[in-house]
Every structure is written in C-alpha cells, then in structure tokens.
Backbone:
C-alpha cells in the first residue's frame, strides 16, 4: 500500500503522523526513573528557576539538594523499593520534593484526593499498606484520625508556610498552624528530614510502579491508576516534542492539584523535564490564579474548562494583560464549542497566545491528544500524540471507519496496565482486540476524521434514556444540551444532568449561571428555539456558580444527586 492509499480505518492508516517530524517519531526514551530523567534534563541548567511559591524561588540545584536529602531520610527511616507511601497534599514545593525523593529510592507514591473522608483515608492506608503518610497541615487532623489503630508508623506534616518568607509566612502560619505535630508519631517535614538524613549519597533505585493516581470521579467512584516510570516519562518526552512554542525558563501557571493526572503529569513532571518554572498555587481559586498571573505574567497556563470560561470574563472585566501568553491549555473534560470559540477569539484579539485543547484521562497518564496549534478544527480535541494510536469501536469491538461514532479506544506507551487492587475493573477498561493489541476503553463516544482529528460526542456513562408521556423512548446527551444552552447570549455557564423522579424516570436538570439582565423566561423561550421539545430541561435552576469537584471539573455526581439545592418549582 503506498502513502496515498488508505484502508478507511484510523488505527491502521494513522493519518496524524503526517503532522510530526521524523525526529519526534523516532525519539528514544531513556530507560530510567522519573527522578533520573528530571536530573538528566536539568543537570546543565542548575541555576535556572524550577519553582516559584508565593515570594520564594527555588533553583533546580536547590530542588535536587532537597530531593536528595529527603530521599536519604526516607531510606534511613526504612522506606524501601516497592513500598507505597501516601501523600495527601496540594501544590507546594514539599509535595514535589517528596514525590521525586520517593521515586529516587524506588518507592511508589499514592497521591490521594484531599477531599476523602476519614473512613476512605483509613481504607486507602490499609489497602496500600502505607507505613508513612505525608499530609498538608490543612488536612492533618483528618489524616491523624484516619491513621489510628492501623499500621501507619509516621505522619509527616508539611505546611503551607514552610517555603515562604516574611509577612507571607507570618500570615499563612497564623491562619493554618496546627498543634497536631506534638502528637505521637507525627513530625514536621523539615524536622523529619533533619533527623533521619545522614548526607550519604543514595544511588537511584528504579521501581516498576512509580505513582498511583486516582480517576476524577465525576460520574462514579474514583479508582487507583497504577502508572510506571515509563508511562510518565514517555508522556513528558512526547509533550516536549509537540512543537508548542515554549522554551526553557518559560513560566507555567496551572490550577489543577497534584493528585490529578493533569496536575501531576502536565503540571509537575512535564514542566520539570522541559526546564520550565512552575508557578505553584496551592489553593487554586480564580482570584489566586489571577493574582499570580498579574505578578508573574506567565507564558503558559493550564486550566479546567469551567475555570477558563470564568477566567475569560475576568480578563475582560478587569482589563488584565495577557500579552506574554504563548499557550492556554485546557482539558480534563468535554470542551463546549461555544467556550472554545470564545477563548480563541479573545486570545487572537489580545495576545499571540494559542488555545491548546487536550484530551485524556488518568489511565493515559493525562493527555493523549492535542491540537498542536496546527490547523484548528472547532470542536476537535486534536490529533493523537506521536506513537499513540486511536480507534473507534462498536459494542462488539469492531473497528469503525472515519467519521463513524463509537467508543474511543487508545493504545499508547503512557497507558496503565491495571487498577490498584481491582482486577475486575481492569478487565473492563483494558481489552485485547482482534489485532492482538491491548486497548484502553475510555468510556467516551466520538469519532476520528480522515485527517486524524478526534471529536468527542459525550460520555457513555452520561447518556440517558427518557420515556415521554406517550411511552416513546429517547436517548439524552447532556453534553449536547449544555452546548446549546451555552450558545444563548447572556448565559455564562451551565451544567446538565439527569435526576430520577418518584417513578425512577430520568428528568433533565439544568443549572445555569447568567447575566443579571437575562430572565428565566427569556432563557426558557430561547431554549425552545434551539432544542427539540423532548430534551427540553424539566428543571432549570439559576445559580451563582457551577459546582466543581476537587480537581476543578464539573461535579455531576453532586448535580445528579440533587445536592445543589433543587428548586422543583422551577420547571417548564
């Protein structure tokens, strides 16, 4: 078959490869740990700034010094290759230092959601056999209670103020200090490393599984995703070969916490491999992000979709300069076309920056596609990364052709091979197809066009059945309804879910953030012009903001459980 011939099947033709250089296609990943990869990429640039946190900067040299000291302390305490250590924290220098220190000695890091209950934390500690737990002081009491009467030998407390100076340290210390470190088996981070560090050089030890990350849990219970050094290093190398236009020393500000795949994979490991400066924002509220942006004027920003939609309004209303922006990256959830268009237009008119839409999931180490700033196709999440493969399948796992809608599947060097302690779920998401390859089933519906662009149409778990008064059955696609409502002038944001009435029949529930001038009656009348009657929302609620979960995604679980404060008298 010559270069101009195609089979009609994306996974065989791989049309996206035409956008990549031979250098990118033939890039070779070094066989090493995450720690070793970061060190090799930065050993000749040790005086460059690696991290900025409030009013303090850390060079790569200082970061490596702290990593080595911390690794030595963990090793002397008894942490060995293959042990699992749980970290419950936000984006701080100490979080980064602990991750790479544990990786250096071959331990596996379990990055847990900070929003877990005490009961769920205890279950996590037991299942992972975590003898050490590292926790930010904001969550220390919950962690201490969860660790009672189980095999946790040491709780190490990091503080928001540990890596700050002057008035910032005084304010943060006053607001967040805790007496919990006085309790048995509890030590502050710096006390711990000073006590157990003997300054001996430790040779890096590579372990297979480096990190356990947890799925977003927007539509179900989070699952622990086992990722290897190879998975995460390949992602970082590949991202660096995308030709996105940033350079060593550029500053990146992102809003996603480290226990999320985008937060760790795109927010920590990839920037460290590329020699960027990570601007850390431990409490990523919009006002905090805006404050850091105004001060640092970063070249790169990574935001959730809902955050970007709100950030665009803030930039406009407060006349905030974005002139230095090269890239605004979004991903982690479906991107409504109206939001994408809004962002592209604003960036084009106010900067030289480009919107990079990515798509992925924790099971893929984070992103797996990107639009690369090449020919933009509105509504697409771009093309697969180089040496990543995608196929669309039907219910019988038959591959579909270009433009045919089915479940999106990936085969990539970055994909997990298993969930932690969950063989049954692993079998559901990872399946060997007729081609002999193992494919990861995303649970998302979409298609691939003839140029290799991937389009997302919705989540399989977010497709509902609806029976009308005449007994007719319809499929409901909430993502489509959201996109239509977002197109109404004066609607700032919205989320659509389904709730069950007393007859267990799905009812469409829409919550909307709007301009003050826009009335509910105007919304209803406009919706009737853009949506078929059978998918007109049964309940419409006007809210000040859309609920989001701990990783910055729309919290559909909360919405669909009716936990947002349903106003059942507000309906069509």
Residues:
């Amino acid at each position: 078959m010559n270069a101009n011939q195609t089979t009609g099947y994306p996974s065989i033709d791989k049309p996206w490869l035409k956008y990549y250089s031979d250098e990118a296609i033939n890039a070779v990943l070094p066989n090493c740990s995450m720690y070793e990869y970061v060190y090799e990429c930065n050993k000749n640039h040790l005086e460059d700034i690696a991290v900025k946190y409030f009013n303090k900067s850390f060079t790569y040299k200082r970061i490596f010094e702290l990593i080595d000291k911390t690794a030595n302390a963990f090793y002397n305490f008894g942490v060995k290759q293959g042990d699992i250590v749980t970290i419950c924290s936000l984006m701080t220098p100490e979080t980064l230092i602990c991750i790479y220190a544990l990786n250096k000695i071959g331990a596996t890091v379990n990055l847990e959601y900070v929003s877990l209950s005490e009961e769920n934390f205890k279950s996590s500690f037991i299942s992972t056999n975590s003898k050490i737990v590292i926790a930010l002081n904001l969550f220390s009491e919950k962690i201490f209670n969860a660790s009672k009467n189980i095999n946790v030998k040491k709780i190490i407390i990091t503080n928001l103020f540990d890596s700050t100076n002057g008035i910032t340290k005084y304010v943060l210390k006053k607001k967040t200090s805790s007496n919990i470190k006085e309790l048995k088996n509890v030590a502050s981070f710096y006390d711990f490393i000073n006590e157990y560090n003997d300054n001996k050089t430790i040779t890096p030890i590579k372990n297979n599984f480096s990190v356990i990350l947890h799925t977003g849990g927007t539509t179900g219970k989070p699952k622990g995703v086992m990722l290897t050094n190879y998975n995460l290093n390949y992602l970082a190398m590949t991202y660096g070969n995308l030709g996105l236009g940033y350079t060593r020393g550029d500053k990146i500000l992102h809003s996603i916490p480290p226990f999320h795949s985008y937060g760790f994979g795109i927010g920590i490991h990839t920037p460290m491999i590329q020699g960027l400066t990570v601007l850390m924002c431990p409490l990523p509220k919009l006002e905090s992000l805006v404050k850091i942006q105004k001060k640092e004027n970063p070249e790169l920003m990574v935001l959730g979709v809902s955050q970007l939609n709100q950030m665009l309004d803030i930039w406009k209303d407060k006349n905030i300069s974005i002139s230095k922006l090269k890239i605004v990256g979004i991903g982690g959830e479906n991107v409504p076309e109206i939001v994408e268009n809004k962002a592209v237009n604003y960036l084009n008119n106010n900067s030289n920056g480009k919107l990079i839409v990515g798509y992925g999931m924790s099971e893929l180490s984070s992103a797996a596609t990107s639009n690369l700033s090449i020919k933009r196709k509105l509504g697409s999440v771009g093309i697969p990364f180089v040496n990543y493969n995608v196929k669309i399948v039907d219910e019988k796992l038959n591959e579909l052709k270009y433009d045919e809608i089915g479940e999106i599947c990936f085969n990539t060097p970055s994909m997990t091979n298993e969930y932690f302690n969950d063989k049954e779920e692993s079998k559901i998401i990872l399946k060997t197809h007729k081609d002999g390859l193992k494919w990861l089933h995303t649970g998302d519906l979409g298609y691939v066009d003839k140029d290799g662009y991937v389009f997302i149409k919705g989540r399989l778990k977010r497709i509902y059945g609806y029976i009308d008064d005449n007994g007719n059955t319809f499929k409901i696609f909430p993502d489509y309804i959201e996109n239509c409502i977002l197109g109404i002038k004066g609607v700032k944001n919205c989320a659509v879910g389904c709730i069950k009435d007393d007859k267990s029949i799905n009812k469409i529930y829409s919550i909307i953030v709007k301009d003050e001038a826009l009335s509910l009656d105007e919304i209803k009348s406009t919706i009737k012009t853009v949506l078929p009657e059978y998918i007109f929302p049964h309940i419409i609620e006007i809210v000040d903001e859309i609920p989001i979960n701990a990783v910055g995604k729309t919290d559909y679980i909360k919405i669909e459980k009716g936990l947002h404060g349903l106003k059942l008298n507000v309906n069509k």
Remarks:
- The CA atoms of residues 84 and 129 lie 7 Å apart.
